[in-house]
Amino acid sequence: MSPAPLPDFNGVILEEAQLVIGECIGSGAFGRVHQATFVGHHYYSPYPRDARLAVKCLPRPSAPTPGPQRDSLQARELSSHLKVSSHPSIATIHQVLFDKTYFYVVMDRYDGDLFEAIVDKGVFKDNDELIKNVFLQILEAVEFCHSNGVYHRDLKPRNVLYEQVGEQMNVRLTDFGLATLNEVSNTIKCGTSRYMSPESFGTEYRREAGYSTVQSDIWSLGVVLFNMITGHNPWNSPSLKDGHFSSYVADNNHLFRKHNISPEVNNIIQRIFVVEPNSRISISKLKNEIKSVKTFFREMQDTVNTVPFPVNDSAGPQIPSPH
Fold first, then answer.
1. Catalytic annotation, residues
2. Among candidate residues 75, 108, 141, the one where a domain is terminated
3. Is 8 annotated as a binding residue?
């Protein structure tokens, strides 16, 4: 059943936070993100003086009787995010407020997301230094999550926000709606198919004992890296029914021949895109490999039969992230 349409929160005053909600800057089936302005005295402000703020507005689910089960999904998302929010490469949550109908999550506002940076602005094209810097920030964020027992399960460019500070691009991991505290999961098709690991996608590689959420996140990181370098997806889904994926499984140099990735990158993605999860490279080793890359690109005449980046990277209803 589709969720009820959300109202326009523009002009709503959050008295406890001394915020006025402004125009909507992102929306989805289950939430809206609005700009926000602090209207109290800055001497008493709980936010950094020059902070640009956003409020994510989430509906509280209805329940026959009040109780902790009513807010379990939202509470799980917020508790997972709050657990790791202190990291400099993870979106900061300043405050969580609620009334009878909605949650209001006060966050920093950013310039955009990584999908926009790749597709709309093309900022990573032929830019080795920027790819290395940004992807290492993402790796640090995910490694911090894992070390604190949080496994994201929906890593993709739309869930990485950025802010431009001069020549520096700082990124922030966000949207923990599908995150879990379990290192082993039996939930399949969790996230967006292009970024899912084979074992989390469906029955072809499914394991009775469940799959490692650590290793599944590492696979997703490989797809994000591939997006940044090529502006393409390696495949639409990690299934043998997908021609691009089955070609890679048959020959792990398939992506190297089709895209302008360097031999160094080809070696790295071959260590990420391993169907056997326990054989995948660890994040700590992946960081070292990325640091040692001299170039992520090689010259090519053209690309043939590649998977273009979708115009809309969402797969089903998504709660928008502040940007």
1. 154
2. 108
3. no
